[in-house]
Amino acid sequence: MRAIGVAIDRSLHFHELSPDEFRHDTAGRWPQPVADMLLAAWGAAEGVPAYVTSTVANVTGTPARTFGEWAADNAGSFSAPTRSQQR
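Above: the chain's sequence. Below: its structure in token form.
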């Protein structure tokens, strides 16, 4: 989140939903087993460092970009569309 804020030169705020809020917000739109599976997966990953591989470099021959680099390269995607873009 911070990387996107830096890329668009804005302060962004993130509100994490509790598991109960997530279940409530997805009720009727997602099957309950899907919501439960996602919550279990997110819970299992909490506090565990991401698994990093060399796959991008192996496949493309170029090192992977950081999330900050990706956010900077795609900053325009995080802006509200202008009137001309909405038409």
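The chain has a mean pLDDT of 90.
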